Amino acid sequence: MAAIQLVINNRPHEVEIAPDTPLLWVLRDKLNMTGTKYGCGMGLCGACTVHLDGEAVRSCQTPVSSVGAKKITTIEGLSADNSHPLQRAWIVEQVPQCGYCQPGQIMSAAALLAKTPKPSEDQIDHAMEGNLCRCGMYGRIRKAIHRASGSHEGVSHAQLFPASPSLENLSPASLSSANLSSGSPSGKRGA
Question: What CATH number does residue 157 fall under?
Answer without folding.
Answer: 1.10.150.120
